[in-house]
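BUG: 3D viewer hangs when loading the predicted structure for this chain

Environment: internal workstation, default settings.
Expected: structure renders.
Actual: progress bar stalls at 90%.

Input used:
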Amino acid sequence: MTNTGLPLILCYPMPLNRRGFCTSLAASAVSVRSRAATRDRALKSSDIVNGPTNIHAFTENETLELKRDRTSWSAQDILVSTEAGANQTSLRVSVSSPRQRLLRLRLQWQGSLPNTERVSGDAWERSYGDLGWHPLEPDRILPWYFLAGSRDSYTGLGVQTGAGALCFWQTTPSEIVLWLDVRNGGRGVELGNRTLTAATIVLEDYARHSAFDAARKLCRRMAQSGVFMPAPIYGGNNWYYAYGHSSAEDIRADTGRIASWAPPGPNRPFMVIDDGWSPYPTTGPWSEGNARFPDMARLASDILGMGVRPGLWFRPLTTRAAVSETLLLKSKFAESRYARGQLRTLDPTVEGAAEQITTDVKRLCGWGFRLIKHDYSTYDLLGRWGFQMGSEITDAQWSFADRTRTTAEIIRAFYQTLREAAGATALLGCNTIGHLSAGLFEVQRTGDDTSGRDWSRTRKMGVNTLAFRSPQQGTFFDVDADCVGLTNDIPWSLNRRWLDLLARSGTALFVSAAPDAVKQEQRDALRQAFSHAAVRQPVCEPLDWFETNQPERWRVGSKVSDFDWYSEDISLPI
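Structure tokens produced before the viewer hung:
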């Protein structure tokens, strides 16, 4: 889908008004002459650590160019500090603004990286089949981090996980820009007397490294902490053949099949019950199952009794239950749903809402589920999918009930609430922000949905996210590139290749296997796949990812394998 949400980028590099949008060429912060003078100036790592050339602050009332005094930048009551870390390979950016409602900071370094033949970045939350290596594109936003280079020489720039701002980069022939979105919802944050650590920039040059090795090393540098599954995660998920139409008995039958394909040993597979079990489709309350799922605790016990670990999907921020208006999010997007009589969205900054979320998670864990897959929270909070965000991740003119924290801080705190409530139960985040969930969730769904109906969707979403986000495997969390939708609607020859790659990829393997699509050939392949997936594998490496964003040539373990994703595909492209 085409991303049309790029108000900041489409006007770049024109100057910006108080909300960060274009004003006039005459007020440009950097003249055409100075850009030409810096076009050939190669930036070194030390240049980044020494601090930016310019910093602009955008408040609800005006745009301010900050004046530099060594490692401090100020205008009116806004103070930005840039502090170099140990070994001169990081730069911490902190900001205080006691009276001004701050929207964004724009940090600019004049000059260019020495080698920007190809650039690859990350995504705001899940990717949508849109990651890849691109030529230098000044209008492209690069959330969180990017690599630039070619052949065996790369430079990586990013921010540490758990940042206090939502961060993205731009790179042009004459400058590098880092935007720090410190808003609260769509309005300025009210920091009061505290100092916000907005981001810690990390950077490194990688000579004589493959692009994949460089990406892995950069992710390791950015990861402040990580929690991971003690053994590889694999098993079943019923969504991509049932699509919400299932029952407790269907799940028991699925569990029996999963158990029969799993190898012996202590690392048992999971059976994840996806959407369709709650009283209302795709929303809470989460207090009980529907008529087809009359006893969730018994179902979890039955799954465990078959030698399989039970998992459960839920959507923590929405409900159709009657709840106090004081607990609800007050964004335009959320209120438009209330007006249509649709689901209600909790504001996680309200104490009662946080308590409700904690109660729900503890209930699911108390039923006996060993993995909780939580979904939709980025969309529910910000009103946009990742491909719609661009540089403006949410609508303007709304805020959370607590205006003293940034959106990034609020989302991170919400994730922390889930983590504390879940205790020893594993968490799988879907439609969540990886850079904010690292260190809190064991597993992350890194791409949009694959499919049990349309192969082109699996290839576009699954293959792409496995290629470009597998550097996050074992550095941020365990990566889940989504399921093998094993149904009669998709040629087995194609699904078998996807199954084989996932099983040996070193990332999570989940299979949605329709009972009528599994014959002896499929059973044999599933047993083989589960035997691979149950033990730790080296992370797979895409070898032709410079030529295509749906790589076919992979290093899997010690072997190089080719995967034809196209020859039997007659599905309509998405």
